[in-house]
Amino acid sequence: MRQLDGYPLVRPHGGWSLLLDTATLGLAPGEASERLFHRGRVAATPMTGWGPSGDRYLRLVFANEPTDRLGDLRERFRAAFG
Question: Are the beta carbons of 24 and 8 closer than 8 angstroms?
Fold first, then answer.
């Protein structure tokens, strides 16, 4: 969470996922997902189709991610979103 300070995140209340509010960034979830994947080398799932409020979120799952792979997450987000 500290690495992504300043990004429009929805804090998790447990579990292994984190939501990014892509509407705040002026992007659709699918476009944000493409940017993260191609520019930041981060895979994230658009929440489109997960209910009416899902159309603005991107889901990042950390269930099986080694902590050392998360060390440069902020730089990966900057590469994707500037």
Answer: yes
Fold of 9-81: Aspartate Aminotransferase, domain 1 (3.90.1150)
Q: pLDDT tens digits, residue range 30-56?
A: 999 999 999 999 999 999 888 777 889
Look up the pTM and report it. Answer: 0.83
State how far the Cα of 80 lies from the Cα of 82, in Å rounded to an integer.
Answer: 6
Domain ranges of the chain: 9-81
Among 53, 59, 54, 1, smallest CA distance to 33 is for: 59
Tell me which residue of 28, 27, 57, 32 sits closest to 43, measured CA to CA. Answer: 32
